[in-house]
Amino acid sequence: MNSISVNILVLVSGGGTNLQALIDAEKAGRFSGGTSGLSGKIVAVVSDRAGVYALERAKLAGIPAFVEALEKTLTKPERRRDLSDRILKICQEQDIGLIIYAGFLSILTGELIEAYAGKMINIHPSLLPKFGGQGMYGERVHQAVLASGEKESGCTVHIVDAGTDTGPILIQRTVPVLAGDTADTLAERIHREEHIAIVDAAIMMVTNILTGGKS
Ligand code: GRF
After folding, report:
1. How many other β-carbons are positioned within 10 Å of the β-carbon of residue 1?
2. For residue range 3-12, what is the model confidence (pLDDT) as tens digits?
3. pLDDT per residue as tens digits for the range 158-187
4. Sequence-distant contacts of 22-26: CB under 8 A, at least 24 apart
5. How much is the average pLDDT of 144-170?
6. What is the number of other CB atoms lying within 10 angstroms of the CB of residue 149?
7. φ and ψ at 24, to 5 degrees?
8. Which residues line ligand 1 (CB under 6 A)?
9. Mutate which of 131, 194, 196 to test ligand 1's pocket (most atoms within 8 Å of Cβ)?
């Protein structure tokens, strides 16, 4: 039985309800046990902004949390590279095996993306490839879905690649778009499904990493 554990880094930018779902799943033993010796542990949380409630959630759970704020004096590409390099350093120090973007709003680039190819996942609040890509985040996604007249929406967990919301899809969960929905009511319905999808995808990834893709 493989008893090696996968150290998980969770990236956040906001309230952190997806982070909370991951913390609760770990506490409930969902990242450990089973015949494969499945074992995953959230060892660090990184936020790209200070003061967000996700940091408080990490603190309450006893998980080390780091604020790696965007360096505003740099150009956009330099800023992304700088943040990515700082996150890579944390990953190396903490021996991270899986990175989960849980409502993380920055785009990462460079060596980090190469070093963690196939080991980074992101949750997006739409049924990708619809309503994804640069600038499609938060309320804008749900407003675009409502404006398009789609009958359903949902969430997607996918592997992160060099693009934005473009990597291979791991899990999608669907919700109906109801008459009278606002961006808020639709977002709330999707958020509940995100909490299930992100945990299921994390378990899938930990199992896959520990079995070398043979599960
Ligand atoms: C989620 O809707 C996620 O899909 C999006 O940002 C939101 C973050 O929610 N990228 P939370 O911070 O996990 O509550």
Report:
1. 7
2. 579 999 999 9
3. 999 988 899 999 999 999 999 999 999 999
4. 22/100, 22/102, 22/198, 22/199, 22/202, 23/57, 23/58, 23/61, 23/63, 25/199, 25/202, 25/203
5. 95
6. 7
7. -65, -40
8. 14-19, 54, 102-103, 123-125, 137, 191, 194
9. 194
